[in-house]
Structures are given as structure tokens and as C-alpha cells.
Write a structure and sequence with these properties.
Blueprint: H1 8-22, E1 30-34, H2 40-47, E2 51-56, E3 65-66, E4 80-86, H3 97-107, E5 108-117, E6 120-127, E7 136-143, H4 166-175, E8 178-185, E9 192-199
Parallel strand pairs: 1-2, 1-4, 2-3, 4-5
Antiparallel strand pairs: 5-9, 6-7, 8-9
């Protein structure tokens, strides 16, 4: 784990990950984290009182479950209150996106929380005065619809790039029967776009 990886912007993303999970409510106690890298997220969740199970395709990371999202994996039905995948899904071809969401929807009791890269040209500004405790943010962005090149060669796709507009991602989510409970983008680090997905309460 390098200092470059633990950048200020990435730490902002970790902060948002924990904050979003806590917003799901006290009934969420068991978490499956897929894609663990440095295990920092698992530590943060555990210290916030969650029971965390880790899953990853890399055995060197010593996850609780060896799980390859490009393989025919199986997770027992309705095992976890929430399943989280932060900056993971873009590392596999988009053809697996809906297939994986279907399996994950079966494995979660209620929620799936994901973040994916959002490739845009943006302008972000913050206004904070001594008269207000909460800062105000201003964000303008334009998807890079003219480009097919992700930020890193490790990514197969990114939302906003040519062929991957937001409406395509939203359509895929709805195709598998999941509801979008919340969307979130931090003006400090708009590259990470969060979706809180929920199983249809009528089907629970």
C-alpha cells in the first residue's frame, strides 16, 4: 500500500463509504465486502460495530471467501444485510455487470452498495463561512462521452465514457429488479459515484 494510493481524495471516499453504510439503519449489522485490497474498509466497518465478511479473487489478500466475479460463484441466499463493492465492478468487463447484480441480489437480505468511476470534466468549488457550520458546494461536470479511455488500464469501463452513459448503468440496475434508493457524488472527489441499491420491498 503506497502513500499515493492513500491520497486525500481516496480517504474522502473511505469516509463516504462508512457514512453511507451507517445511513442504512441499525438493522444492517452483517456486511459482505467484495474487493478488499488493503482491508482498511473492513477495519473501519468493524470498529463501527459491523460484522464483516471479506471476499476477493486474490488469495494473497487472505479474504474470508475466495470469490471471482468473472467465475460462476455462489453465495448462500439472503446471508448478509448488505453487500458492498467499492471501485470493483469496473475491473471486469461490463458483460458481467447485470449477471453479478442478480447473484448479489439473491445473497443480500436487502441492500447492495456500489461505487464506480465517473469519468467527467468537472469544476468543483466549496464555500465555507464562519456563519455556517456546513460548507456549501458547487459542482459542474460534463461526461467524457467523446473518449473511450479509462483513467487506468486496469479498468474495462467507466461511467461517462463513450458507450457507458449513466442511463446505461441505471438501465442495467433496473433490469435486474433492484431499486435505486440513493445516489451520491462528493464534490471533493466526484470521480467516485455511489449507488445504494435495494431489493424491491414488495418482493421481500
Amino acid at each position: 500500500m503506497t502513500d499515493e494510493y492513500l491520497s486525500k481524495r481516496r480517504m474522502i471516499s473511505y469516509y463516504n463509504q462508512v457514512r453511507i453504510i451507517r445511513s442504512l439503519g441499525k438493522e444492517v449489522k452483517t456486511i459482505l465486502e467484495i474487493g478488499i485490497y488493503n482491508s482498511l474498509m473492513s477495519v473501519l466497518l468493524t470498529r463501527n460495530g459491523y460484522k464483516v465478511t471479506t471476499a476477493d479473487a486474490n488469495p494473497e489478500l487472505k479474504p474470508d471467501i475466495l470469490l471471482d466475479l468473472q467465475a460462476d460463484f455462489d453465495i448462500p441466499k439472503e446471508t448478509f444485510d448488505a453487500i458492498v463493492l467499492f471501485q470493483v465492478l469496473e475491473h471486469i468487463p461490463y458483460e458481467y455487470f447485470e449477471k453479478n447484480l442478480i447473484k448479489l441480489a439473491d445473497a443480500t437480505k436487502r441492500f447492495i452498495v456500489i461505487s464506480i468511476p465517473c469519468s467527467t470534466v468537472f469544476f468543483s468549488s466549496q464555500f465555507h463561512t464562519s456563519f455556517a457550520l456546513t460548507p456549501r458546494h458547487f459542482l459542474i461536470q460534463l461526461p467524457k462521452f467523446w473518449s473511450s479511455q479509462p483513467w487506468t488500464d486496469e479498468h474495462y469501463w467507466e461511467m461517462g465514457l463513450k458507450g457507458y452513459p449513466k442511463k446505461r448503468i441505471v438501465s442495467s440496475i433496473k433490469n435486474v429488479g433492484l431499486l435505486i434508493k440513493r445516489e451520491f457524488q462528493d464534490p471533493y472527489h466526484p470521480y467516485h459515484y455511489f449507488f445504494v441499491l435495494e431489493k424491491n420491498p414488495k418482493l421481500l
